[in-house]
Every structure is written in structure tokens, then in C-alpha cells.
Design a protein that fits this description.
Oligomer: single chain
Structural class: mainly alpha
Strand content: under 5%
Number of strands: 0
Shape: elongated
Distance between the termini: 109 Å
Number of helices: 25
Order of helices and strands: HHHHHHHHHHHHHHHHHHHHHHHHH
Helix content: 55-70%
Length: 563
């Protein structure tokens, strides 16, 4: 247990304590007192590097589970040391203390409400590896807390502290706290409206990185919310690949069955989950106010054009998703609608996305005419014309009343343009108005119409008169009825054919039945085969043939009945 110079080997003592804790309790207490004295010395100069102190910390954290009564104050000593001197500590000592606290937390010797707020403060350290390790532990620990059921009490306390961290002056700490919330949302752990609304405050932050992270969350949350834990899926997929590509043995087949059963249970849990998943942008408390604040920040910002594009994208999606009224947003986009503008196709897409049927048509008509003047003319290249017509078509699909008959008939003339993409764009616009408002088209462009054309009015809501899709059920029922009637007709036809096939047979009573033994078949055969040689005896031969024919018919009937 001791080396040649009398120093105790801590790894060896740790192994002995795990085997027999009562026999080595005195040695443990001696090392604990030694740690307390070293701790007082270390506090005098926390920036110094002490290898022996780090070994004592790891030794005590491993064996503390064996002596819970004596080690009740040990976690508190480590957390106080980190909280007071985390910025001045030596990187090696600081990482050792964090590893020791993680080990104690995994053994439930430290409460999460006590440890996790301290770890959030460690995001302020300029140690990338430490921030990465702390980030991973926070996510896994909160996931473990909510594995069986939602631990609302702990979640509420952690969320309140984490929301305060978003307003931290240290940019890296705020950014990491935001990353933790986004990761927990993606893993379906913190997917409530409170978390989403706090993340939305990051979109209005003065820090560019924090703002872009929050905006990208709302722009990309639709795909992320649908997936479950990526770690679990990765483990299952790797195991399945290993089994499928290997030789078929009984052990591997059993393993395949276990993996398939796990996958089925996972899908069953996902389908029966009472917590419905919503897109993050749908659970905002005040989307109108949030969009107005974002637009105000957009007008006053001096960020790069790529950052402003992300802000435009979020505002247009908010307007489209919640049908908001932000009328100043459309003239703001109009100044960027030029063919030579960088990323002009994205700006046109944002403008089309921000249109809906509740916007007054007079507010959108100047922008539509501007697009037609700048993009749709004979002096523009074919690619620019097709982009302009497609943009107008998307705008009219969302707000049909912005189009007048003069502009529509002018755009419809491009169906005979020499470029194929322009022709397809023009025909797509014509087909759209054939469905929504064919009155604006010329007579030759309207095509065949079924019924009267419906007139469009601003603010009019189409109320369904029945159940959508009920005609499909009726068609299915009619199809089944036709099939049933066809079967009946087939059965009747078969019965008629059987009756027709029996018409050539004659029924014979029991009295008229003939005994087959009394009939001379050879004479009958000879008489039938004999040629007619005498013309004088034609009458007699005819009478005999008639008698023979009658006998043959009777014989055939009897034979048929016997068969």
C-alpha cells in the first residue's frame, strides 16, 4: 500500500477499500483529513498546479459511495471551490474537479438543482474542451431526469436559471445555454411553449451569433421536431446493419428478433405519445408583436446581408403561418426586387410567402406591377421572365384578388414565347386562373368550364356545404353495387345457358322405359348403314327408318338416364 519512500499509493488503497471498506476505514479517514489540509493550502493560491491534490480529489470521489456518512460535506467543498475560483483555477485542476462532480452526480450523491447551475456558469471559461464536456453532461443528465416521466419540479427550477443565462453578459455562456435548450427541444425533453418563447427572445439579442442561432431554430425546427433521440436511432441502425450483413446463425437471428421488437416498441410509444408535437413557430404567445419587433430590428440593423436575409425569412414565415398584418414589410422588400440584386430569388420567395388572402389587394398590387415591370418584359433574359411569371403565380395562388384582367391577359400572351421555361410558366399561370377566377381570362384561354364561375370577394370565407371527400365514398359504394349486380347477371346467364342446353332432351316416364336386353343393336346398325338401292320401295323404307329413328331416340334417352 506504500511505496519505497513511504507515500501511500492511492489507486491501490482505492482497490482495497472497494473490496473491504470496514478494514480500511482508518486509512480512508486519514486520507480525507489529508485532503482537507491540502484544500486549505490550495485556496491560498488557486491558480497553482497541484498533481497530488488532483489525485486526492479523484480518490475520494471514487470511494465516497462506500462511506456516505463521512462524505456528506465532500461534494459541497468541491462545488464551493469551483464556484469561487472557476476562472482562476488551473485548467487541469478545473477539469479534475468537474470530472469528480460528474462522477458524484451519476451516483446521485449531488442534487441536480445544486450542480447544473454551477455547470452553466462554467460556460464562461475559455476552455473549449471543458465547455464541450459540460454541455454533454447537462443534456444527458436532464434527459435521464425526464426518462420515465416529466420531472416538472426540477425542470422549472433549471429553466428559470437557464433563461437568466440567456441575458448573461458573457456571449459564450449565453450561446451555450441557448444550444442546451435547442438540443433538449430536439430530443423532445423540453418541448413546451415556455421553452419556445424564451428561445424567441434570443432572436432579438444584440449579439449576432445568439440572434442567428435563435432564427435558425425557428426556420429549421419543423424537421428537427419530428425525429427522436439520434443516439438511440444510431445504435439501433448500426446493430441492424451488423446483423444483416453477417452470416445467418441462430444467435444472430435471435438478435435480429430482439432488435425488431425494440424498434416496434419504439414506434408504438411514438404513436401513442399523448404529447402532440407542434412546430416551434406555432406555439409563440404573441406572433404579431414578435414579428413587429423583428421587423423593427431588421430596419435598424447594420449586419451583413446574409443575416438580414435570415431575418426576412423568419418574418415572412411568421406572416404566412399566423396570417399577420405587417403592411410595411412589403414596401421594404420592394426595394430589393431588381434582377441584378444579390439573392433576388430568395427575396421574391420571401415576398410570395408573406402574402395571404387577408391582406388588402391594394397593398400588394404595386409590388406585383413592379415585378412585372422589372422582370417580365421582352428586354429581359428568358430566365428572368420565367422567374417573374412564377413569382406572380405564387402570389396569386395566395392572394388571387391582386391580379387584374389587363395584366393577366398580357402575361398569358407569353404562352407563345420562344423559350420553353417561359411558356411553361405562362401556362401555369393560365391554369391557375382557370380554377380560381376564369373570368379574367380571354374566352379562348378559359377552356371547358363545369358550372358557373365563382366570383371572388375580399374577406369572404368559403364555408363547406358538406363533408370533404364524401363523393369518393359514394363512388366506392356505387362501384360495389355495380359489381354485385354484374355477379347476379352472370349467375342468371349461366342458368339460362343450362336451360338452353337441355332443350334437345325428352323426358321419359317409367312406363315408357325400354329393356336394353331386348333390343337387337346389330340389326339396327345394319339397317342404318344399308344404302337406299330401290326407288320403288321408298315409302316402305321411309316408314322403317322412322321406326328405327324412334327406337334409337328412346335407347339414347335410356342410356343417358343410366349414365
Amino acid at each position: 500500500m506504500t511505496s519505497a519512500d513511504g507515500v501511500v499509493r492511492l489507486p491501490h488503497l482505492q482497490n482495497l477499500i472497494k473490496r473491504d471498506k470496514d478494514a480500511y476505514k482508518e486509512e480512508f479517514l486519514m486520507q480525507y483529513r489529508h485532503f482537507q489540509s491540502n484544500l486549505e493550502i490550495f485556496r491560498l493560491k488557486p491558480s497553482a498546479e497541484s498533481k497530488h491534490f488532483a489525485e486526492l480529489v479523484m480518490f475520494l470521489s471514487h470511494v465516497s459511495v462506500k462511506y456516505p456518512e463521512e462524505m456528506t460535506t465532500f461534494p459541497r467543498l468541491l462545488t464551493d471551490l469551483l464556484e469561487q475560483h472557476y476562472s482562476a483555477l488551473n485548467p487541469t485542476i478545473r477539469q479534475t474537479l468537474v470530472n469528480a462532480l460528474i462522477l458524484l452526480r451519476n451516483r446521485n450523491q449531488v442534487e441536480p438543482v445544486t450542480l447544473l447551475p454551477l455547470f452553466f456558469k462554467l460556460f464562461r471559461c475559455s476552455d473549449k474542451e471543458l465547455r464541450k464536456m459540460v454541455f454533454s453532461h447537462i443534456v444527458q443528465d436532464i434527459k435521464r431526469l425526464n426518462k420515465k416521466h416529466k420531472n416538472q419540479a426540477v425542470n422549472r427550477q433549471l429553466q428559470n436559471f437557464m433563461f437568466e443565462m440567456l441575458e448573461d453578459k458573457h456571449a459564450k455562456a449565453a450561446k451555450k445555454s441557448l444550444d442546451v435548450m435547442i438540443e433538449l427541444y430536439k430530443k423532445q425533453i423540453w418541448n413546451d411553449a415556455k421553452t419556445v418563447n424564451v428561445i424567441s427572445t434570443a432572436c432579438l439579442s444584440k449579439d449576432t451569433k445568439l440572434m442567428v442561432t435563435g432564427i435558425n431554430f425557428f426556420l429549421g425546427a419543423y424537421d428537427a421536431v419530428e425525429g427522436e433521440d439520434s443516439d438511440d436511432e444510431g445504435t439501433g441502425s448500426v446493430a441492424m446493419k451488423e446483423i444483416i450483413g453477417a452470416k445467418k446463425t441462430k444467435a444472430r437471428q435471435n438478435r435480429m428478433k430482439r432488435e425488431l421488437s425494440k424498434e416496434k416498441k419504439k414506434q408504438r410509444r411514438k404513436s401513442t405519445d399523448p404529447n402532440t408535437n407542434f412546430a416551434a413557430i406555432d406555439v409563440l404567445n404573441d406572433p404579431q408583436g414578435f414579428a413587429e419587433k423583428m421587423f423593427g430590428k431588421l430596419k435598424s440593423t447594420t449586419e451583413k446581408f446574409e443575416v438580414r436575409l435570415t431575418m426576412m425569412s423568419l418574418i415572412s414565415r411568421l406572416i404566412n403561418r399566423h396570417k399577420l398584418f405587417l403592411l410595411n414589410f412589403y414596401p421594404y422588400l420592394q426595394k430589393y426586387m431588381q434582377p441584378h440584386q444579390l439573392h433576388v430569388t430568395q427575396i421574391l420567395a420571401f415576398f410570395a410567402q408573406a402574402c395571404h388572402d387577408l391582406i388588402p389587394p391594394k397593398e400588394l398590387q404595386p409590388m406585383v406591377k413592379s415585378i412585372a415591370d422589372n422582370f417580365i418584359s421582352e428586354r429581359c433574359p428568358a430566365e428572368v421572365i420565367s422567374v417573374g411569371i412564377n413569382t406572380v403565380r405564387e402570389i396569386c395562388a395566395r392572394a388571387p384578388l391582386v391580379m387584374d384582367d389587363t395584366l393577366l391577359q398580357d402575361l398569358a400572351q407569353y404562352k407563345t414565347f420562344k423559350n420553353k421555361s417561359v411558356v411553361m410558366a405562362s401556362r401555369g399561370l393560365i391554369n391557375l386562373f382557370r380554377e380560381i377566377n376564369p373570368v379574367l381570362l380571354t374566352r379562348k384561354d378559359r377552356g371547358r368550364q363545369e358550372g358557373e364561375a365563382k366570383t371572388l370577394e375580399y374577406g369572404k370565407v368559403a364555408v363547406p356545404e358538406g363533408v370533404d371527400g364524401i363523393e369518393l365514398l359514394q363512388d366506392e359504394m356505387m362501384h360495389d353495387g355495380d359489381a354485385y349486380s354484374d355477379d347476379e347477371q352472370d349467375e342468371e346467364g349461366e342458368e339460362e345457358e343450362d336451360d338452353e342446353s337441355m332443350e334437345g332432351w325428352e323426358e321419359v316416364s317409367e312406363d315408357e322405359q325400354v329393356d336394353l336386353d331386348t333390343i337387337d343393336f346389330e340389326n339396327l346398325k345394319a339397317d342404318n348403314e344399308a344404302p337406299d338401292s330401290d326407288d320403288e320401295d321408298d315409302d316402305e323404307d321411309d316408314e322403317e327408318e322412322e321406326e328405327n329413328d324412334d327406337v334409337c331416340c328412346v335407347v339414347c334417352c335410356v342410356v343417358g338416364s343410366l349414365r
